[in-house]
């Protein structure tokens, strides 16, 4: 087979690049995907009970990048959705990111008044402060509060999720869920938030629906690369695998998802409940809250973090840590040597903890470079 571009991976990164190249440059693209479906980790499907579920864990789209939102809006309508998360702390379900409502849910009103006034005085209102930042220089009551939140919300959850303590990871990891000095219970504050009205897989079907795009599923690119004539490749899988781990394996974190079904209309009051201190799983997510689907019964998942073992499970999370970044840089240098023939992009190829909007933005900006 003869094509202009060979793209490895049909997730957001690979699919957006395929669409841009096919529609804007009129060039022929072959996407090779090792799974039996498109959409990468955003893949969704209807389960046996007819509930729309996300196979690889809950995916909520949120972005402050209007061009990313507008780009995807060509291929989907959006269901407006604001994600809400409660964490079980001291036997109570309180909002996360931890905010002033969480404070009042956990402490007697007069003490909560005092703590919230001190927080506002020190940092201001409607301000987000990472837990590691608050802990750096807190004194008195604020020190008590910072330690309380650290111990009850972050420490054990992070150990479960990463097998590392919060301070052993890049500070950006726990800063994703900062202390929010506000009464806003939403998990994200981005201007654009929602889910594709007909689901992610339907969105991807439309992205890939172009006569210049061909798709080969159930195929690892190594199996076919010799037989395909292409001018350039874009690789969106793990960069260390591409280079046959010549500098050693990049570490990833994996997950096991346990799907459960109930005859109840709803199992929990919000999309996700976090369990920092109980159970082996980190969180449960009930899909009907996300999708707004009206159907009898409900499906939810428990997420069990796992060590990643090559060939046994899926590398879901690059691990943001300085020493692993240094290892990644060695692979980046290898990539630089062959950039005339192969380009690398995506959560696994860039070894970056991208959200979906960042993966799309990365693909769009790489396309700009290709096209200039
Ligand atoms: P992927 O989606 O991983 O796609 C890469 C594709 O390449 C895969 O389909 C893989 O099978 C294929 N591939 C790899 N190697 C080969 C090979 N050798 N041959 C052929 N094919 C290959 N983001 C959000 O914005 N909001 C969320 O709520 C959210 N929740 C998440 C929850 C979980 C549990 C996880 C793991 C991620 C979540 N994300 C979320 C992040 C989101 O999944 C990623 O940003 C996005 O999927 C990245 O897209 P990608 O195309 O770079 O990678
Ligand atoms: N986190 C935590 N407790 C929580 C929520 C998050 O300790 O209740 C930390 C944990 O280290 C987690 C990180 O913040 O991995 C980022 O959380 P996020 O919900 O963004 O993770 P993701 O959805 O990407 O798995």
From TrEMBL:
Transmembrane segments: none annotated. This is UDP-galactopyranose mutase. Keywords: FAD, Flavoprotein, Isomerase. Its EC number is 5.4.99.9. It comes from Candidatus Marithioploca araucensis. One of its GO terms (molecular function) is UDP-galactopyranose mutase activity. InterPro entries: UDP-GALP_mutase, UDP-GalPyranose_mutase_C. Gene3D superfamilies: NAD(P)-binding Rossmann-like Domain. It is an enzyme of class 5 (isomerase). Belongs to the UDP-galactopyranose/dTDP-fucopyranose mutase family. The keyword Chloroplast does not apply. Pfam families: GLF, NAD_binding_8. Its cofactor is FAD. Residues 153-353 form the UDP-galactopyranose mutase C-terminal domain. The keyword Metal-binding does not apply.
């Amino acid at each position: 087979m003869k094509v202009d571009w060979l793209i490895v991976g049909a997730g957001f990164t690979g699919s957006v690049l395929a669409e841009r190249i096919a529609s804007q440059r009129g060039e022929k693209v072959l996407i090779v995907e090792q799974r039996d479906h498109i959409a990468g980790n955003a893949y969704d499907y209807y389960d046996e009970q007819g509930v729309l579920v996300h196979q690889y864990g809950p995916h909520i789209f949120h972005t402050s990048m209007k061009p990313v939102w507008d780009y995807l809006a060509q291929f989907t309508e959006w269901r407006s959705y604001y994600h809400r998360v409660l964490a079980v702390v001291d036997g109570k379900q309180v909002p996360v990111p931890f905010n002033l409502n969480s404070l009042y849910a956990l402490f007697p009103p007069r003490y909560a008044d005092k703590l919230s006034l001190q927080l506002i005085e020190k940092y201001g209102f409607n301000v987000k402060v990472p837990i590691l930042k608050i802990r750096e220089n807190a004194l008195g009551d604020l020190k008590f509060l910072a330690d309380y939140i650290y111990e009850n919300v972050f420490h054990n959850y992070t150990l479960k999720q990463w097998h590392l303590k919060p301070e052993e990871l890049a500070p950006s990891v726990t800063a994703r869920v900062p202390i929010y000095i506000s009464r806003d219970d939403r998990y994200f504050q981005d201007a654009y938030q929602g889910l594709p009205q007909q689901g992610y897989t339907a969105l991807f079907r439309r992205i890939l629906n172009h006569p210049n795009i061909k798709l080969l599923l159930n195929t690892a690119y190594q199996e076919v690369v010799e037989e395909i004539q292409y001018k350039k490749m874009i690789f969106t899988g793990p960069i260390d695998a591409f280079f046959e781990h010549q500098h050693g394996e990049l570490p990833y974190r994996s997950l096991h998802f346990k799907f459960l079904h109930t005859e109840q209309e709803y199992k929990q009051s919000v999309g996700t409940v976090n369990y920092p201190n109980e159970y082996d799983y980190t969180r449960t997510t009930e899909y009907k809250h996300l999708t707004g689907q009206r159907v009898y019964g409900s499906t939810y998942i428990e997420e069990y973090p796992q060590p990643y073992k090559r060939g046994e499970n899926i590398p879901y999370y690059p691990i943001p840590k300085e020493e692993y970044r240094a290892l990644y840089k060695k692979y980046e240098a290898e990539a630089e040597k062959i950039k005339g023939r192969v380009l690398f992009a995506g959560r696994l190829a860039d070894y970056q903890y991208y959200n979906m909007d960042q993966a799309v933005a990365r693909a769009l900006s790489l396309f700009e470079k290709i096209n200039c």
